[in-house]
Design a protein that fits this description.
globular, about 425 residues, 36 strands, mainly beta, about 0% helix, 4-stranded antiparallel sheet
C-alpha cells in the first residue's frame, strides 16, 4: 500500500466545524466524530465500518506514521484521550488520558501537543471569569508521558497553533502573534508580521503563509512578508509547486506556482454548501460535506477541476441518542468559522441548570453575553452577531455548573 505521510513538518491545529478525517492512501482512511464513532474505509469512501473505540466524545486528531501504526485523539468528560494502534486500527489502545490537545507526531516516539497551564482570573464590576492558558508539550516515548516546554509569558498567553519544522526549529501562534524558536523551545522570539495571525502553513522552514484578513507569504523564514491574496485563504495542501486553499470552507482555490497567484475552482455542483478538503497529492483529493447528520464524500482525480460523489455515512444513532439520554456536557466549535457577520454555537446539557455563554475579545474583555438562564437538559443552538465588532479573534465561554470551556472564533469582514 502506498503510504502518504512523508512530510516531516508538524501542524497542530484547532479543530474546525468539521469532524476529523485522515487518509493513508486513495482507498484507506478514517473519519471521526459522527455519532461519537470512529469510522474506517478501505474502498475510497464507498463503504465504512465502525472501529473498536468505546465511549469517545469528540475526535480531534487522526494521524498514521506508516501503513499500520497510528494515533487517534479525542476529548470529552474532562479528559484528553490518546489512543494508539499498531495494526491499522483493528485494535486501539488507550495510552494517555492527559495528553494535551491536538497532539501530532514526527515519528512513532516524538511528538508535540498543546496543554493547559495555570488559570488566569479576569475581574470586572459584575463578574470574575477564569481563562485557561496553554503550554507547548513534548513526548519522546510515543505519547505515554508529556513534558512542558517553556516559552514567553507562558501563563498569560494562549497557544493556538504549532508547526514543527525540525527537532529544533518550531513556530507557534500566541494571541494572534507569530513566535519562533531555533533551540527546541528553550527560548522564543516574536516575529514581525503585517497582520495578526489566525493560522499558518509552511512549505519548508523558509517558505510559508499566514492569514487572517488576507494571505501573506514569506520566503525567508518570517523575516519579510508579501501579500499574495486579498482573501483569507486557509491552506489545506501544499507540495513543491501546487497548493490548495479554501475560503470559508466553501470555495476552493488553487496555485500552481508556490502560492504566488491563485485561481478559483468550482468543480462540485453544490459549491454553495460548506466543505472540508483533504488532498493526498496535487491530483487526488476528497471533499466532505457534513449536514443534517450525514457525511457526504466527493473525490477528484484531476486536481480539483471535477468531483465525483463516492459515498456517505448516515448518522446511525446509538442507543443513548435514540433514547435522547445525554451523559456529558459539550461546547461545539462555532459554525461557520471564520464568519461574517454571524455564526452559530451549539452546546449540550446533560442535566438542568443555570447556563451562561459569554464572548470575549483577544485581551479577555467581555463584550457580549449570549445566554444567562436556567435550561433543561438537551441540545441547544445560539447565534452570535458580530456586525458591530471589528474583524479579529474572539473567544466564547460556557459555564454550566462545574463545566467550563472556552473556544476561539474568527470574525472576518
Amino acid at each position: 500500500m502506498k503510504f502518504l505521510y512523508t512530510i516531516i513538518f508538524l501542524l497542530v491545529i484547532i479543530t474546525n466545524s468539521f469532524p476529523q478525517f485522515y487518509f493513508i492512501s486513495e482507498d484507506v482512511g478514517w473519519f471521526g466524530n459522527l455519532s461519537k464513532q470512529l469510522y474506517k474505509t478501505t474502498d475510497g469512501c464507498k463503504t465504512w465500518s465502525i472501529q473498536n473505540i468505546d465511549s469517545i466524545s469528540f475526535s480531534r486528531v487522526i494521524q498514521f506514521m506508516d501503513d499500520s501504526s497510528g494515533f487517534f485523539h479525542t476529548t470529552g468528560k474532562g479528559y484528553s484521550n490518546l489512543y494508539k494502534t499498531t495494526n491499522q486500527g483493528n485494535n486501539w489502545e488507550l495510552i494517555n488520558r492527559k495528553s494535551g490537545f491536538y497532539p501530532r507526531f514526527l515519528d512513532k516516539y516524538n511528538g508535540y501537543s498543546i496543554g493547559s497551564s495555570d488559570s488566569f482570573y479576569l475581574e470586572s464590576s459584575t463578574s470574575t471569569d477564569t481563562f485557561w492558558y496553554q503550554r507547548l508539550l513534548k513526548t519522546t516515548n510515543g505519547g505515554i508521558t508529556w513534558d512542558s516546554l517553556s516559552f514567553i509569558d507562558a501563563d498569560k498567553n494562549h497557544v493556538i497553533r504549532v508547526w514543527v519544522h525540525s527537532a529544533t526549529i518550531i513556530n507557534l501562534v500566541m494571541n494572534a502573534s507569530l513566535y519562533k524558536t531555533t533551540n527546541a523551545g528553550q527560548s522564543w522570539f516574536k516575529q514581525t508580521t503585517p497582520i495578526k495571525v489566525a493560522n499558518f502553513w509552511y512549505i519548508d522552514s523558509l517558505e510559508g503563509f499566514i492569514w487572517l484578513h488576507s494571505l501573506y507569504k514569506t520566503t525567508d523564514g518570517g523575516i519579510t512578508w508579501s501579500e499574495k491574496n486579498s482573501n483569507a485563504l486557509k491552506i489545506v495542501f501544499s507540495d513543491s509547486t501546487t497548493l490548495f486553499g479554501s475560503l470559508y470552507n466553501t470555495y476552493l482555490f488553487k496555485s500552481t506556482n508556490r502560492g504566488e497567484t491563485w485561481f478559483e475552482l468550482r468543480g462540485i455542483e453544490t459549491s454553495d454548501e460548506t466543505y472540508n478538503y483533504y488532498f493526498l497529492n496535487k491530483d487526488f483529493g476528497f471533499a466532505i460535506q457534513y449536514s443534517g447528520g450525514i457525511a457526504k464524500f466527493y473525490r477528484t482525480t484531476d486536481g480539483g477541476y471535477t468531483w465525483t460523489f463516492v459515498g456517505s455515512i448516515p448518522n446511525t444513532a446509538t442507543n443513548q441518542e435514540e433514547n435522547n439520554i445525554l451523559y456529558y456536557f459539550s461546547l461545539e466549535q462555532n459554525y461557520p468559522n471564520p464568519f461574517n457577520p454571524s455564526t452559530k454555537i451549539n452546546y449540550t446539557l446533560p442535566k438542568q441548570g443555570l447556563v451562561t455563554i459569554k464572548v470575549y475579545d483577544v485581551l479577555g474583555k467581555e463584550i457580549m453575553q449570549l445566554v444567562n438562564e436556567e435550561k433543561p437538559s438537551g441540545e441547544y443552538e445560539v447565534e452570535f452577531d458580530g456586525s458591530s465588532l471589528s474583524s479579529g479573534i474572539y473567544y466564547y465561554k460556557i459555564q454550566a455548573g462545574e463545566f467550563v470551556q472556552t473556544k476561539k472564533m474568527v470574525l472576518m469582514k
